[in-house]
Design goal:
Length: 380
């Protein structure tokens, strides 16, 4: 017998088996976190941007969407890219949510499936519509012209443009110099317009064929060049419709008094209304339910009371608070009226201020009959 202190020699295959099992145990421990080995979460899939280019854009307001979400406002020409990126094999569908102001835009190559690169082939092509100059305007500059041989500096130009293109009617007047332009925009292409005007000074015609050119620089601003017996280079004329939500850009403010009240509109002082004579003022103004109006003006500039009665038809409900006045007859109720009473007058009026409750507190009024012009600012 072998003694106990003698070493037992194991067959070779037993030794290999024990070594293999030990290695399996180490591997199992490593897989369960033993030893701090690596592995972790799989890498995030790659994402790619969705975009393209815009051309022909002049005004603001263009809004694009991708897959009916991810709204993107684009205000200038050039490249665009949506905020949300997409992964490979994801569909995209770009559409126009909102057209820009006074533009028509179309879209090509707007849909597809993302591969393994950014999408840059979407194109948006915009064409500017002919601008609509309709609205109320006030001067943001001044100029000097020669009217009937008299040099005048125009510093307080106000006016109205009304009607459908291409023959939009306009009246611009300066309340400090009694100069009035009455004309028509005969053509407008995109932002540039041309027209003709009759010019009055102190209520009388001084030029019958004035060329008017201008540019609609924005929705609420125009730049005009005028001339009369010399030249007047106008500065920028800014509109009163600065905000799209302005009450003066929507439904007309109520200027009418239903009934027979004659005191809804009246001047606050003799100097608050201008008409031919510097001290002219109105005693009352009323518009009745049948849209006929009637008011009286008193002039005290000559030391005598010169009273004129104005009665005509006011077409209410016009857009941007501009009312067309037609078939106005000027008569002489008391004393000599300083105006030529025939032929009949036509023109425009507009409410440019209100009391916060939808009732007008200031009205611009201007009419002409080819011989005389009348303009006033009526306050309540």
């Amino acid at each position: 017998m072998k003694s106990l202190d003698q070493k037992t020699t194991l067959p070779a295959f037993f030794r290999l088996f024990i070594i293999a099992m030990a290695m399996v145990g180490v591997t199992a421990l490593t897989g369960c976190g033993g030893g701090g080995g690596g592995g972790g979460a799989p890498a995030a899939p790659a994402t790619y941007s969705i975009g393209g280019s815009v051309s022909g854009l002049i005004n603001t307001g263009l809004v694009l969407q991708n897959n009916s979400a991810d709204d993107l406002s684009v205000n200038t020409d050039g490249s665009f890219s949506f905020t949300t990126q997409l992964t490979t094999d994801t569909n995209y569908a770009v559409t126009i949510l909102t057209q820009p102001v006074d533009h028509t835009c179309s879209l090509t190559s707007g849909s597809g499936k993302v591969a393994s690169s950014n999408i840059t082939s979407i194109t948006v092509t915009c064409t500017a519509d002919n601008q609509d100059a309709q609205g109320l305007y006030i001067s943001n500059g001044d100029g000097t012209g020669t009217f009937n041989g008299i040099s005048e500096t125009l510093t307080d130009v106000k006016g109205m443009i009304y009607g459908d293109l291409p023959n939009q009617k306009f009246i611009f007047f300066d309340i400090g110099t009694n100069v009035l332009y009455d004309g028509v925009i005969t053509a407008i292409t995109l932002k540039d317009f041309t027209g003709t005007a009759v010019v009055y000074h102190d209520g009388l015609v001084v030029d019958n064929a004035v060329t008017v050119t201008g540019t609609v620089t924005s929705r609420s601003t125009i730049s005009m060049a005028l001339a009369a017996n010399g030249k007047f280079a106008g500065g920028t004329i800014e509109g009163l419709f600065i905000k799209p939500a302005s009450i003066y850009d929507t439904a007309a403010t109520n200027a009418r008094s239903i009934g027979s009240s004659a005191l809804d509109w009246k001047s606050t002082s003799p100097g608050s209304v201008k008409m031919v004579d510097s001290n002219t003022y109105t005693t009352n103004f009323s518009v009745f339910s049948n849209d006929t109006y009637d008011f009286i003006t008193d002039s005290t500039g000559t030391g005598l009371v010169v009273r004129c009665d104005h009665a005509g038809t006011l077409i209410s409900g016009s857009t941007k608070n501009i009312y067309v006045m037609s078939n106005e007859v000027v008569t002489v109720p008391v004393g000599p009226c300083a105006l030529t009473t025939t032929p009949n007058y036509s023109g425009m009026a507009s409410i440019v201020a209100d009391d916060g409750a939808g009732k007008g507190t200031e009205m611009w009024y201007a009419t002409t009959n080819g011989t005389n012009s009348i303009f006033m600012i009526l306050t309540r």
